[in-house]
Amino acid sequence: MPRLPHQLKRRPILILFGLGLALSLAIGQLWAPQQAIAQDPALAQQQTSARDQVQQGVEQYQRGDFQSAIAFWETAFDTYITAGNLQNQAITAENLARAYRRLGDADSALLYWAQTVQAYAQLDNPEKLGRMLTEQAQTYSRLGQYQQAIGLLCGLGNPGADESGIDEGDSSEKALSETCQPDSAVGMAQTAEDTPGAAAALGSLGEAYRLRGSDMLAESALKESLDLAQSLSHSAYIAAATNSLGSVYMQRSRISDRRADDAEARGDNQGATNTAAVEREEAREQNALAIEAFNQSLAAANDEQDKVRALLSLVPAYHRAGQPTVAASYHAQAVALLDQLPASRTKAYATIDLANLLPLTLSLNVPRESLAGFACLPSQNQIQRGSPVRAQSEALLLQAIATAQATGDYRAQSFAYGKLGHLYECDRRYSKALSFTKDAEWAADQALKSRDSLYLWQWQTGRILNKQQEAKSAIDSYEAAVTTLEKIRSDILTADRDLQFDFRDAVEPVYRELAELHLAQAPPSEMVLPQEDDDRADNISAALTTIDSLRLAELQNYFGDECIILASIDPGDADDAASATYPDTGIFSTFITDNRTAVVLTLPDGRRRVEWLSKSAAAINRAVNDFRIGLEESLYSLEEYDPAIAKPLYDLLIQPFAADLEASGVSTLVFVQDGVFRSAPMAALFDGEKYLVQRYAIATTPSLSLTTLTPAPKRQLRALALGLSEAATVDDQTFAALAGVDRELEKVKQRLPGSQSFLNEAFTLKTLQEELRENEYSIVHMATHGEFGAEPQDTFLVTGDKQKLTIGELEAALRQSGGTQQIDLLMLSACQTALGDTRATLGLAGVAVQAGARSAVASLWLINDEATTTIVDRFYEALGDVDLTKAQALQRAQIAAIDSDNLSRPGLWAPFLLIGDWQ
Question: CA-based, 20 to 30 A from 284: which of 354, 748, 820, 865?
Fold first, then answer.
């Protein structure tokens, strides 16, 4: 039989908690036709033979020999097609889909699910059709194609809201199942009064929502599934639904812990607004709910597979609760059940997970990246070579390899060999580590079925070679890992929102370590001119290319959108293209490692210099936060602001390059920032005499390859101005009135003739969509509260009808503009980001890209109405001068504020950033 194309999306199963959090509500069973229906004796004989082949296939399947089962069933399937026996075609295709799913061949499984769905539709069997749609959707979820799964399970509603047709924050009493379309799996189960089918469909829907990151919708669907399962006293469904609910709570707990980490990093861990303490408590509460749900799953489990799944989930949950002894008890129970599981990919992955979770049974002090399997434990907690625990870990991995080989599962072999190689890497037995890692690479590369794990082992090879002081060979392996990552990045970064947790451990380090290796080969403090056969220049260029690729990966992981965030030019050419296009521009790229920070300057003639700052990431974090805190506090202080506060950061970042900038005639500086630097307004750096903006026009961009480098054609500056002046409460969050917004919109209309404005209740998503569809605007000006948070769901604008407008909704509206050209400028004049929150500032940095505009002007923090209106008005006045770039227009507005009597405090003018195209 033909197979589906291999462009179907793939994603890696990062070992961390992988099996334990998976949901599978298998609602069907294997079938064998009871009789052959045919008038022709020869054809009847063929169908009798086919029926026997189906039965033989069932017997082989039940023995775990899926390949033999498939061979029998595919022969029978061809016979039933020839005979036109639709009923038996459906039965056999259903069996084939399950067998291919057990083998991990999702492409072929999808092919047969499609055949099954088509057959039951022709047979007008809505109950079976709904169940087959559910199983088809489960396969799409395993591939990371959650939107496709949701469409099959519930149907797609209003694309302006959540794709299900209801908002993530919808607080109505309406059950989620009531929003599903009649021709969806949920809808068909309800029509057919198929309660088991509805429970399975809702459980699968909840899991698809969970993996996509829509935890409220996931919880709603899973609770409906659980209610139905309990009404049926169906233990398997109860076990599956409660396990997946536990995963929702665990995911929330991890997010709250991450928010607490960020709050502590920025110093928000004291006083009445102790955000870190609040988030830690929320993390504890959600983890307690997870433990309760996982224990319910364990209690309901009737077979060994469900029990192992629940036990695997309980190990990390109890470790997070500070109970490693309890975690060890559940781990031991899971190990004891392994022998009762038949040889299968489920058993192989369970065994790998048990090896990976062993550190949680030993100590509370286990780094997050160690759990992901990509860093060694601290020496005091390390599983020592020769210890019983170390021996158990290796024994489990060897057992996983044997199981994976017996079932022909190269993917499981890849992870088992790779983890085994990592054990030897941590033992510093590098020869054996390389040998096992190469075995992992080989397994990952077989039949192109597991290439999404290949980069992990190429990266591991690079780490090992680097530890053996083989820098060139290490770089080659790292480059291979990045090349593999680039091919599969969309699937990894957008498929599973859990990977926001893993991204920093399993993706980001690959880029960072490679860039650091390249920069280590380039001489510091020495100007390098790109030329042929110059390894120094080549290494700097390669490092910048790698850093830019990391920027793309970060944005893609943050926004979760593989379609919008696409590089406009090759990252390797970005700096050179910018210098060639704008010869008065100097480009600063910062790059933070744990122990030091690199600053790379690219001058208009292509020369480059690298400076290493001998400060740790923690020291850099403190310096930047202190700088920003000083600027924000100047807004409320009765004392005059002392600009000398900003000089240490200037001396760190700019002073080493001051002579080069002056000699090169640079007038504009573009910053491609890393980490915490994104939250610092470079305009307010002080050299002892002047602020940086008084010497240079300044812009920032998340990535030069995402920045439009061709100058925009001059056209009439016409704005669509929208604003909210009234106080608003959205999702229990209160936003103060912005009394000066009406005046700000009037100023926009005066300065830019032909503009249109919509205030308060007139400012809605519908208005935005209609105006952009029916009219051409070069500027979209939004004077309303905006927040950029650590999670995409925390990033939004507030509309005049007191609703949240997500960046995704804004992007959709801007890209359907009635004009032939993209929006030139998006102005967000009342935004704010959390101090020191690098993920929040990542959202701000990428807003122009994600919104589909050439440029954006946005504020890092909220300032008073008078200052906002004045600075925005002066910016638009300067923008009307065709000889000025956008960066120069903002520079002129900020210098005017510095020179004024009432706006000179940098806390008033510094937070306005120009993001993206600076021309």
Answer: 354
pLDDT of residue 4: 32
Of 40 and 837, the structure prediction assigns the larger pLDDT to 837
Claim to verify: residue 765 and residue 908 sit in the same structural domain? yes
Is the pTM for the entire model greater than 0.85? no
Average pLDDT of the residues in 466-490 = 90
282-291, 305-314, 479-488: least confidently modelled range: 479-488
The answer on 876 and 731 residing in a single domain is yes
Q: According to the model, what pLDDT value does residue 275 have?
A: 80
893 and 769 in a common domain? yes
How many domains, in total, are found in the chain? 3
Contact in structure between 204 and 139 (CB atoms under 8 Å): no
Chain centroid offset of residue 876 CA: 36
Q: Are residues 238 and 119 in the same domain?
A: no
Q: Of the candidates 365, 453, 362, 356, which has an alpha carbon nearest to the alpha carbon of residue 414? A: 453
Residue 213 lies in a domain: no
- The DSSP secondary structure of 196-230, one letter per residue, reads HHHHHHHHHHHHHHHHHT-HHHHHHHHHHHHHHHH
* More confident site: 10 or 466: 466
| Residue 590 · residue 678 · CB < 8 Å | no
Domain-embedded: residue 502: no
Whether the pLDDT of residue 563 is over 80: the answer is no
Q: Classify residue 765: in a domain, yes or no.
A: yes
Dist. CA 762–CA 756, nearest whole Å: 12
Q: Exposure of 369 by Cβ count < 10 A (0-12 exposed, 13-18 middle, 19+ buried)?
A: middle
- Identify the domain boundary among 124, 145, 160: 124
Return the higher-pLDDT residue of 161 and 716: 716
When mean pLDDT is compared across 92-106, 147-161, 710-724, 772-786, the lowest value belongs to: 147-161
Q: Which pLDDT score, from 0 to 100, does residue 489 have?
A: 67
Residues 565, 568, 570, 574, Cα dihedral to 10°: -100
Least confident stretch, 192-206, 368-382, 855-869: 368-382
Nearest Cα residue to 287 out of 321, 310, 312, 315: 321
- pLDDT band for 10, please (50, 70, 90 cuts): very low
Task: Specify the CATH number for the domain of residue 782.
Answer: 3.40.50.1460
Residues 239 and 120 in one domain: no
Terminal C-alpha separation, the chain: 56
pLDDT in the model for residue 380: 43
Average pLDDT over residues 113-118: 91
Tokens 């489920």 belong to 346
Query: Residue 522's pLDDT band (boundaries 50, 70, 90)?
Result: confident
pLDDT in tens, 723-744: 999 999 988 889 999 999 999 9
What pLDDT is stored for residue 916 in this prediction?
92
Measured in degrees and rounded to the nearest 5, phi and psi for residue 859 equal -105, 140
Residue 462 to residues 367, 428, 593: CA-CA distances in angstroms? 21, 14, 18
Domain boundary among 105, 124, 143: 124
Q: Is residue 721 part of a domain?
A: yes
Alpha-carbon 112 to chain mean position = 31
**Which residue blocks in 582-720 are alpha helix, DSSP H?**
617-633, 647-653, 658-663
Phi and psi at residue 469, in whole multiples of 5°? 65, 30
The residues that bridge with 832 in the sheet, in sequence order, are 787
**Contact 353/17 with Cβ under 8 angstroms?**
yes
Q: Token match 């829907």: residue?
A: 205
On whether both 769 and 906 belong to a single domain, the answer is: yes
Interaxial angle between packed helices 66-83 and 41-62, expressed in degrees from 0 to 180 and rounded to the nearest 10? 160
Which residue from 172, 164, 174 is spatially nearest to 208, judged by alpha carbons? 164
Range of the domain at 270: 234-340
- Could you give the C-alpha distances from 742 to 724, 745, 782, 831, 912, in angstroms and in order? 8, 5, 12, 17, 20
Give the DSSP H or E segment for 744. helix 741-751
Cα–Cα distance between 107 and 381 in angstroms, integer? Answer: 42
Residue with tokens 């991450």: 258
